[in-house]
Records
---
Amino acid sequence: MTHVPDVPSIVKSRPVGGDNACSVLLNLDKNRHFCFLHDRIRFEDKTDRLIFRAYISHKPHRIRFFERYFDHPMCDLGECDPACHDYPAWHKPKISFYAQLRYKFILALEGNDVATNLKWIMSSNSIAVMPRPRYETWFMEGRLIPDYHYIAIRDDYSDLEERLQYYIDRRPCQRIYTSVRRQPPREADIAADARQILLGDRSRLPLARRERYAAPLAVAAAAVTGVRLRMPARVRGGT
């Protein structure tokens, strides 16, 4: 989901910032988006390169990155969609998540909405490299702090080499790695945000619409926070 619906709706993802109160995030598509790894490789034992394996067809921002950095010595990039034949020079076979953990840096470039690999990268001893996120899920990517939870690069990717070399030469990566491991977005914080969003949705709506959407909001709130919202008598028990 890359837009905000007109009425309160349960969504997997939403734009970061702006008036996104009608987008009620739930932990949807969990098996694909919320995969976490147990990384046994120490950060200092990993390769000083950036890796990225992804589908790039119909994703112009990913294509631009490949055009600029596919042959760069600091990058190991590969287009791994077997159904895509548009970029044969970029095609490489898929490799497992764990095989990618041999690299210190893993690119987390958004696709149709969020970067699916960001969650498992942040559970590892490697470090995510990405522009500021434009979309967020239940993981609350919008609350991540640039150069604290991940290595931030410009939206046009022009400073990638400079940023990687800086962290390779000066070794401040351990600080980023520690902050990611110790301070990822906590489920309790996310639940608190969801509760605030849900209550905010109801307070912003006119009375007629507030009652109309009270039931679905109550269901969403119970699923997200475990807190049951009080519904108007006319809505309670209705269809």
---
Amino acid sequence: INELVRYITPEFVIKQNLEEVYYDDKKVSQALIEQYHDLTLRTGNRDAFIDRAKTEDSEDYSERLRRIENETLILWGKQDSWIPVEHGQLFLDRLPNAELQVIDKCGHVPMEESPILSLNIYRDFLARVKEKMIDNMSVDLEHK
């Protein structure tokens, strides 16, 4: 089937995938299907998809997350059927400076399915990070 996908990617396959990743199928419009279909047809994207699908690496790299010290926002759809929300908790447990925000009634792509709420979550997160950075700079200057 991989060789078939390399040369033929009908829109119904895209529609089926989108209906899997979106919690609310009503948000899967013909325009969205066409947008994803067009992206799929871009040079190299089909090969990249096939390469990713063939990955059989079973090594657990999650412990490497502990090395990431940056403030990190983990945004997850509560009804993500591809990667369950419990994996978001795994990220949270391993990232030392992370916060997990779970959006109800969202699937695998909450930033698309609930863009305004996602944007507000991102903005609030960035405002907190900015405030923390300013506080840390003030403390550093006081100690010099």
